[in-house]
Amino acid sequence: MHNSSRRSFLRTTALTGAGTAALGLVGAPPAGAADSASTGAASADPGATDAARSRRPDAESPRFTVVVMPDTQYLFDDRSIHPEPVEASFRYLLERGREENIVFLAHLGDLTQNGLAHEFEPIGESFRLLDRRGLPYSVLAGNHDINSSTDDQRGRTPYLDVFGPQRFRRSRTFGGASPDGYNSCHVFRAGGRDWLLLALDWRPSPAGIAWAQGVIRRHPTSPVILTTHELIYADNYGEEGRFSEFGARLWDQLIAGNDQIFLAVNGHYWPPARVTRKNAAGRDVHVHITNYQDRYYGGAGMIRLYRFDLARNTIDVETFSPWLLAKDPARLNVLERQEIERTGAQDYFSVPIDFEQRFAGFAPVPPRPARPARPMLVRGTVAYWRFDGSRQDGSPVGDGERVADLSGRGNDLTKVSVPGSPADALTWSAQHHPDQPGHGSLYFRGNKNPLRGAHLQTVPSAPLNTATFPNGYTVEAFFKLPAGWDAGQNGWAALLSRWGLSKEAGKTQGDPDEPVATLSLSPGRELQWAVYPVNLPGPVTNWGHELPLDTWWHVAVVNDGRHTTMYVDGCPVARNPATRATGLSTLGLPWMLGGFAYGGRLDQVLHGWVGDVRIAERALRVEQFMIG
User: Fold this and answer.
1) What's the gap between Cα 461 and its chain centre?
2) H/E/C letters for each residue in 237-275?
3) Does the pTM of the predicted model rise above 0.70?
4) What is the pLDDT of residues 591-623, one digit of tens each?
5) Which residues of 343-361 are buried (b: 16+ CB within 10 A; e: fewer)?
């Protein structure tokens, strides 16, 4: 039966499940059911070998997968035992473990239909597939696994005999269990940090809640995934999930007050649904229900993959049945074809999470401290400018003020203002790229129509003015474009450019009024390195991709004496020319920071921030970039 009245009955009475099947088994928990927070490593199965350890996931990769398996009760129902779908899922995870970087599997309860010993025996044996290969997992008791009218103080049951703490003693992720044995915690390492998973009983008692609170306190910087059997429900597919009466209590008593809990997953109800709620700290908690026991073949061993991608700040979610997936497509029946994969909005979706921001309340990432200038002066450095120091944030750069070249080569910068520009057209700023050596920048308030702003340029005596870089070069800069950047007013402004026209340098191809070198930003916010090399009659251009506004970026342009490659945040872009390009043409005129000249006159001034800038007379390796 699958309707709202059934759902109301489940929420209010909690009487479905094992019932009297478990009543005669109440007693003392089995030996070893007490909290075991200091348990060891390896596998629960004595047959575990080095092969199990060899499949350990990449703990430092920013991409990893947590797997959820919901209610399997209809596959283990008295004398109707069908382990094949569950075991197919387990084999799939073992075969794809390295490819998917699977770090953990969480079962959401209702392993069996009646909580009988002869039901637990076969599903316990199925889980030994994971034990033998060392894939860590958690289980919890659903209302069909025990007497549903009891809480976690119910005593001994067949569930506890098979899936109690003793089973996990040698699991490398097992962090212990509550004294009753029905609540457990697991710590796995992924994405370069420890994550805590709580597997809570169908009805954790006040003692169970207190135990969970204590576990979270003992792991104060670990993000927490909470799994339990009942939490939210939805009456119809596509509806937003709503807390059940018990789920609301669990939210109030445990989840809302613990900012570390960012994801909570439950089974029990169907259809699948999700909701995002704000906790007491004002941060999002993503709550999902996944359960497919109502589908063909008791859910066909459905699993849900939570693919974490910390680099993309996203969790991608996919739901499917490996058992059906493995079958010969030509032999699938009508229902099997429909159930291989669930692609509705509640089954196949992505969850955007800015992980650093979400976890900032309990595990803030310490800001990278400023680095001294000297280590930045790698071999070949001919100019290094940075804009930190004692200047007040927002104060104007004074007319005639000099910015020293920290390389000691004498390539100092001076301010040049467009007539009629305000005094604050160029100001000192405390803003900076998080990986920038110097914690400061310059803010250019450039505008094209009418032309306003100020830029910096090298002094007339600077050796950089005559440099041609015959053996290669590297140009690096940190920058940010403001949210109000306008393509018409600010497009084609340059981060760095060189005075002198291509025609004056004797070039016969390309635009005769172009500067001989410029690192510009197109109206489409694409970086462009357009230069006239010494060995060619025309220009060579590297193109970047469209860059979001209000974001700090690092750009490096590297020439090895033959070819030029542009890197954005240390990553090579696609449009790097294969043309052999040697050196940079020069007329002995100054370089400009924030200015762009066309046709022999200043044409545009940058609108945005520029941080540290470095130029070297050789090709630097990526690991030598200032962003490194």
Assistant:
1) 48
2) CCCCCEECHHHHHHHHHHHCCCCCEEEEEECCCCCCEEE
3) yes
4) 999 999 999 999 999 999 999 999 999 999 999
5) eeebbeeebebebeebbee
